[in-house]
Design goal:
174 residues; 4 helices
Length: 174
């Protein structure tokens, strides 16, 4: 092997790593290009209404009822690795059910999955070794429903629905 071969291999490996990081960054928050991220979205108010509608529909199908009233919306600016125009927001809201015994918890998980997959939601696959105490399903519009605390060892069961990244007024700033 000549001395230029290792240098060539290092350059190729570096180029591949840079390309992989760029692709991951561009795919953050559901849009793959800056141009896609600059397109109009639903408004933040419309996203909140959709979340409330989804929560009401899900809750109506679950065999357990929340231990508390509906929490406030939690609005967050989209992640720092969200390449492209800044100012988009995600929001979420949900219910806490408290400590649910194993049998009703298993029924709740099944009802959650069955109802949402019937509504077009698809399971979100987490990386191997990631948190395994939740069930997450996402629809084609980017709304994410999460039932957390589903393991037998968990004490608190929570339901949350999150929006995709949206422009607060539906359009990017001029």
């Amino acid at each position: 092997m000549s001395t230029t071969e290792p240098t060539l291999l290092i350059r190729r490996a570096t180029a591949t790593a840079v390309l992989a990081v760029t692709v991951l960054a561009l795919n953050a928050c559901g849009a793959s290009t800056v141009q896609e991220r600059s397109k109009p979205t639903i408004t933040l108010d419309q996203a909140k209404k959709q979340i409330d509608d989804d929560l009401a529909a899900i809750l109506a199908k679950l065999p357990v009822k929340p231990a508390n009233s509906l929490g406030a919306f939690s609005d967050l600016e989209c992640e720092a690795n969200d390449v492209g125009p800044h100012g988009r927001t995600q929001t979420r809201r949900g219910y806490d059910f408290g400590d649910v015994p194993s049998a009703p918890k298993a029924e709740t998980v099944n009802a959650f999955r069955t109802f949402l997959t019937g509504q077009g939601f698809q399971p979100v696959e987490d990386p191997a070794g990631a948190h395994n105490d939740w069930v997450r399903l996402k629809n084609q519009d980017g709304f994410l429903a999460t039932l957390d605390g589903v393991a037998d060892t968990s004490h608190d069961l929570t339901l949350r629905v999150s929006s995709p990244c949206v422009w607060p007024n539906g359009t990017p700033p001029a």
